[in-house]
Amino acid sequence: MRTAIEHVGQGYVEAGAERIVITPGERDVVLETEFGTVVRIKAPKVGGGYRLITDPWKVIDTLEKFGPTTVEISDKSTLLPVARWARRNDIGSVLFSHERLDAMLSLRTARPKMLGGEGAQYRPSVATGVGALYRLLSRTYDAVVVTSRYAAAEFDEVTTPLVRIPLGVDLDTFHPELGEPTDDGVLKLVHAGRLSREKSPHLAVATAVELHRRGVPLRMDVYGSGPHLDELEAIAGDAPITFHGYVDGRRNLARHLTEADVALSVCPGETFGLAVLEALAAGTPVVTADTGGARELVDDSCGRWAPANPAALADAVLELAQLPGRRSAARHRAERYDWPTCIRHMLALHHRLATARLAA
């Protein structure tokens, strides 16, 4: 989500819009940057190390001083008062639905389970009781932006003002020319992302473990940090999996992606999947789960998809690794998703809502 907010926000400013971004932080801070004012509001940590703004009135106080024509909100829980404030003051409001709450609640409370002889199985629990919240969100916001058909499915499309706008990828930073995998008979896998349950790194690692159990010569590199590294190391066991931690610089990450034969981005509850697009843009084909928004980003020229269990995903990896022309097809697929197109659609939506409020 942070990557999306940065790219879209930069596009807003470059198009001539004034912008303020308000985020949770360790302490109250105001920063003036080339891409607008950044306000961090002191907020407590919640599950997975994320911070959540619990005082929406601080947000409203900041917005009243700024005087926006529209507000764009990415929080479905504590910031409803901000959307109501916007409506009372004839300010357009957009909910940017970056995640499916039902899927994320389920994945965050899941526990990886080791089954003897079968590797690690990932069994997410089923989250319930969010329907009433979504009906409330539908009535509160002027528009709800979703990035995929999967993301749209949590809303009632009859009563919700849905707008589907896919995100983009930095096609210059992530590029196949940065490298390629060595041809040494070893299958090179990569996973990049936050090491937190809602991103399903456990399932990616368990897939590599399953391939190792089958005797496939492989190496897996995991890039990213997060609260569940110890669980992942336990699942990995003696399989050839290296946890590199946080990668400093997106160019460095792009180079690492180009060096892999297959990227594993297997979260079954992802609403979009920027990690999928970054791998594709780097020329690396992707295996993903057969549910979630990430599945919509690949086709059979550059990816494979399977039920969210290690055995099925391992089969998909082996099939994809033999696919001719997969690297050029991956890049071609990623080129369908660029940031300028996403930003243009978002600016048009903001303009429409601001104009409608002024005319009301």
TrEMBL record:
Gene3D superfamilies named in the record: Glycogen Phosphorylase B
Domain Glycosyltransferase subfamily 4-like N-terminal: 1-160
Alphabetical list of InterPro entries matching this protein: Glyco_trans_4-like_N, Glycosyltransferase_grp1
Entry keywords, A to Z: Glycosyltransferase, Transferase
Swiss-Prot/TrEMBL GO biological process terms: carbohydrate derivative biosynthetic process
GO molecular-function terms, A-Z: glycosyltransferase activity
Organism: Kribbella sandramycini
Protein name as annotated: Glycosyltransferase
One family name in Pfam for this protein: Glyco_trans_4_4
